[in-house]
Amino acid sequence: MRFRTLKGLAALCGEQDDTIADVMIADQAAESGRPAIDEFAKMAEYWAVMKEAVRRGLTEDTTSRSGLTGRDAQRVMARVEAGDVALGGEAGRAMAYALAVSEVNASMGRIIATPTAGSCGIIPGVFVSAQERYGWDDAKMTRGLFAAGAIGYVIANNSFVSGAEGGCQAEVGSAIGMAAGALTELRGGTPEQSVHAVGLALKNTLGLICDPVGGLVEIPCIVRNGFGAVTALAASDMALAGVRSVIPSDEVIQVMLEVGTSMPEKHRETAKGGLAQTPTGKKIMKDLYGKKK
Amino acid sequence: MRFKDVFSIIGPSMVGPSSSHTAGAARLGRVARQLLGEAPTRADIVFYGSFADTYRGHGTDLAIVGGLLDWATDDLRIAQSLQHAEAEGMSVSIKAGKAVTAHPNTAKITLGGTTRTVELLGASIGGGNIEVHAVDGFDVKFIAMYPTLCVYHKDRPGMLAEMTAVLSRAGVNIGHMDVDRKGRNGEAMTVFEVDTPISGELLAELGRLQDVSDVRLVDLEAGVGAS
User: Fold this and answer.
1) pTM of the model
2) B54 and A216 in contact (C-beta within 8 Å)?
3) A161 with B96: Cβ contact below 8 A
4) Phi and psi at residue A17, to the nearest 5°
5) What does the alpha-carbon distance between residue B132 and residue B72 come to, in Å, rounded to a whole number?
6) Which UniProt keywords apply (chain B) (predicted)?
7) Smallest CA–CA separation between A111 and chain B, in Å?
């Protein structure tokens, strides 16, 4: 890739008068040695899988194998359709769709890891609801996924995207930053505005620990995907309004690395701290595994 | 750069809930199946570390058996893989083990088929990526991202030169290789990770080399290969 920072990515866009998506598609084809059209087709397939996961999460039984979670997306969607959500219908939908995909994941359905399975709801939640709202075609959405991928590529290579390494800020936080930046570009924002959206979003998740109850990708992972989709919308709105990330986004990514590295092991996916070790968290774990331990 | 391209960020397409516990486990199972080179009739799976602690909740057992059925990471049948295995005549035993292993997400898979057996020790290292640590007691490492040849042979001078000459003549580039032997002049295994698909003729040619007893191919892009 020709970029390794968000600043470098935006500069590259500026030089060539390209979007972030254009740069990513060209660089991906150069990296893989395959024609851009093939890379585009693969991403378009992933987009179809994301839309299908939203549909399944809203219509099918998503009770997880542990029985701990399921059907929350449908509960939220019913309120959205009744016109009774404080967020308003648009953000309410993004939240419900994100919950839907995360529940499909927890119930062993097919998803796309974006960037991980634990954070797989946020980008589809934001993207599918935006497509419905704005009437964008699938090609445009696929381009948006390349933009999200470019942002994730920078975050992943300068910091991290897995909860085991950097806490939930790395997992859900990265997905929110990717969704915020990509949505900003889809809505006509400049590459600089997209980059600001990433920094604004990431600031809001710094310090978020990874504390899955029973070690399962369910509690609190699923609701954090729902919240994450809403945060991404807010960050995109701020960036398009001209709000800047005063601390440059690349520096925010470095802070995430610093914070994640200094997190104790018990707060990095081990289920040895946080919500996993509350009285209820411990009871759930005992019910799940007690017999065998 | 740890992450090389856009699809290491967006993707893989997989069956949830965890890239380590399901996508990686499915790939480990599939590698074992391809090493056996036929449908297993018997599978003994031992989970270690985090796999042993949370495999039930994550469906790691279902994913690994899906892999044993030669399914991809996003095959929706994974949730019912145990029933499919039974219907295909594969008896499956799953246990949690206590041993200290190199990685917290480790599995040992022992497969029996109609003509042979294979034992694989491997780990799921995150994001659906895997590392094989041993095959049939040989400590050989590979990651199954590329077409991979596992050659069983006798430890003797010139063996590696003969094998690499065959690959060289076929225009096959070796990206990584690993050799282990059970003792001087004893049994050995050489693993080649290569950049291009391996043809059946090339496999046969390697198998005809003197002191080569068996050649198996792992190619997750291509499906079951060696025979």
Assistant:
1) 0.92
2) yes
3) no
4) 55, 45
5) 18
6) 4Fe-4S, Gluconeogenesis, Iron, Iron-sulfur, Lyase, Metal-binding
7) 6
